[in-house]
Amino acid sequence: MSEPLRPIPAFLTEGVGADRGLICGFQFGGDAVPREITADTMLESLEKPDSITWLHFNLSESRARRWLLEAQLVPNEMREVLREHDGNRHVELVDDGLLLVMNDFSYDEASDPSEVAPLWCYATASHLITARMHPLKSIDDLRLAMRGPSQAASGFELVAQVLELRTLHLRRRAQRMIDRLDDIEDEILAGDIREQREHLGRTRRVCARWRREFSPERTDLAKFLHRQASQFNPKDAESLQAEVDSLGFAIEEVAELYERAKLLQEELASRLAESTGRNLYVLSILTAVLLPMTLITGVFGMNVAGMPGLHEPGAFWRVMLLVVASGVVTLLGLIWRRLL
């Protein structure tokens, strides 16, 4: 950077770990395994030549926010979005670095697989600074990947790795929904239509949210790389473009998943309507058969003078025979008219 790095304030060097705002830090050099760094060794790591440094902060910690707003290696544009907690998607070339505000999956997938939260990134050729308010899945996977052999030629390549991990999560979650839709389709075709409506509605809602969150971001990144690809070295530009294309393919899979869930909902609605119509048909037939029987019992149920058979032995059985005969005649009439 053109400006010299300021010393790390005491409030960040008092301790190590997430309790001080620095969730993790890694330095990439010639070794196969990245070297983990702490808050009190950040300055040394950032000044070391021919190395790549990644610092990941927890913005819910006030000390980390304060340091990021004061550090000289953080550009003014990055400080502004951090100060405002601006989570709107953003991609911009700032000086010699890339400022990116992207959505990442929430760590708690069980409650809502579509839940996302912003991740703030600033990458240069020599370092990557990331920050988040809530635990996020893809960036945490990158942290875990640093425990094993991992290499990065620049901070831009680390951003590409974050995008790759997020796309991988999107595809995995979409694949689980596809497997569930396969089961629902089999159940619908088999005639079991009891509980699928809720699952199909949830699938469409999740897919709609994924498309709403990631499709505009993919478009913004594609436009940015089309305009600014010459500002990156060919390897970094190729890595970023490959992840943008991969995200585009994943979004297409989500769109197909949405359409498939919609078609299954229509099939389910059609089968429900068919089942309802069949039930109404049976009810109509029963109503037609019972109507004359009900009329006879109603007439003979009138408690008025002059009712025939009121004092005759066997009158009850003759009336019952008349009731049954009227029902049989009505049923035969429906069969003759081919309504059954």
UniProtKB/TrEMBL annotation:
Record field: transmembrane: 280-303, 315-336
Coiled coil: 247-274
Organism whose genome encodes this protein: Povalibacter uvarum
Subcellular locations according to the entry: Cell membrane
GO molecular function, one term: cobalt ion binding
Source superkingdom: Bacteria
Similarity field: Belongs to the CorA metal ion transporter (MIT) (TC 1.A.35) family.
GO-annotated cellular components: plasma membrane
Record keyword Chloroplast present: no
The protein's name: Zinc transporter
Keywords for the protein's UniProt record, in alphabetical order: Cell inner membrane, Cell membrane, Coiled coil, Ion transport, Membrane, Transmembrane, Transmembrane helix, Transport, Zinc
Membrane recorded as keyword: yes
Record's bilayer topology term: Multi-pass membrane protein
Alphabetized InterPro entries for the sequence: CorA_cytoplasmic_dom, CorA_TM1_TM2, MgTranspt_CorA/ZnTranspt_ZntB
